[in-house]
Amino acid sequence: MNPYEHPVHLPFIAKIMERGHMDKPMDQYWKARLAEVKKALQSNNFEVYLAGDVQEAKRIVVEEILPGTEAKSISWGGSSTLVNMGLLDTLKNLEGIQTIDTFDSTVSPEERLERRRQALLVDLFITGTNAVTESGKLVNLDMFGNRVAAITFGPRNVVLLVGCNKIVPDLEEAMLRVKNYTAPLNAMRLDKKTPCAKTSYCEDCGSPDRICNSWTITEKSFPPGRIKVVLIREELGI
Questions:
Q1: Where are the beta strands (DSSP E) in the chain?
Q2: pLDDT, tens digit, for every residue of 46-83?
Q3: Helices in 50-180 by DSSP H: which ranges?
Q4: How far apart are alpha carbons 13 and 29 in whole angstroms?
Q5: How far apart are CA 102 and CA 79, in angstroms?
Q6: What is the pLDDT of residues 78-136, one digit of tens each?
Q7: DSSP state letter for 62
Q8: pLDDT score of 6
Q9: Cα(150)–Cα(130) distance, rounded to whole angstroms?
Q10: Is residue 83 part of a domain?
Q11: Is residue 39 part of a domain?
Q12: Residues 6 or more apart from 175 whose CB is under 8 A from it?
């Protein structure tokens, strides 16, 4: 569902439009809403950046976050947002920084799995998140568990790239979104032979291709500032 058309959001959008003094009410709406989510995340010890679009988000990562962490090694988890932003090529071409590509199709599955283990020890790990609640909690569901493991512990710093469509009211809505929207779409995208790839909603299956195995709810960043969230005022990812 387009986040602008979500029934939870419509009353707020209507109020904004009634004021009549905004040329771009939808843009103003998301500016205001993401500013509130930023406050909530910061109160939970996350380091938070606001980006108006993909290009600004890329600049923040490359020009602000990277130098600040002094990272010498980088890796990344599965994230369509990261891929669609075109940030991967930039990261791979950075001078003086080791990159661990865990999705390199030229190596064996065993080697990719080993790289996922190595990626847990990098200075900077970049990925997305399945949902962010308005109270500032991160909700994720993983197949292998390497992405949620890295968010939880291992890499010295973690960067999460988050489109505005990932914002949800609470944990219940977050889990519904992941199970009945994110997971089926990812199963289709990855050509998995799961029931949800056919029906479009969760069947709580026992399929060998099941991608829903490990939940995490990250309530706070520890140590403070280890997890850095870039909130992007665009609809990105799944």
A1: 47-51, 73-76, 98-100, 124-128, 131-133, 138-142, 157-163, 167-168, 214-218, 227-232
A2: 999 999 999 999 999 999 999 999 999 999 998 988 88
A3: 54-59, 66-69, 80-84, 87-92, 109-118, 146-152, 171-177
A4: 7
A5: 12
A6: 898 888 898 998 998 998 999 999 999 999 999 999 999 999 999 999 999 999 999 99
A7: I
A8: 46
A9: 14
A10: yes
A11: yes
A12: 139
| Domains: count for the chain | 1
53: domain CATH number is 3.40.50.10420
The parent domain of residue 51 ranges over 3-232
Distances in whole angstroms, Cα of residue 68 to Cα of each of 46, 150, 153, 159 = 15, 19, 20, 12
On whether residue 238 sits in a domain, the answer given is: no
162-216 pLDDT tens trace: 999 999 999 999 999 999 999 999 999 999 999 999 999 999 999 999 999 999 9
Distance CA(215)–CA(143), nearest Å, equals: 9
Within its chain, how far is the Cα of 198 from the centroid? 25
Q: Six-digit token pair at 2? A: 């387009």
Give Cα separations from 133 to 162, 209, 231 (angstroms): 12, 28, 12
Do 132 and 41 contact (CB within 8 A), yes or no? yes
By C-alpha distance, which of 168, 96, 177, 92 is closest to 126? Answer: 92
Q: How far is CA 128 from the centre of its chain?
A: 2
SS3 content of the chain, % helix, strand, coil (to 5): 45, 20, 35
Q: Read off φ and ψ for residue 70, nearest 5 degrees.
A: 55, 35
Q: CA 56: distance to chain centroid?
A: 16
Inside any domain, residue 237: no
Q: Say yes or no to pLDDT of 16 above 90.
A: no
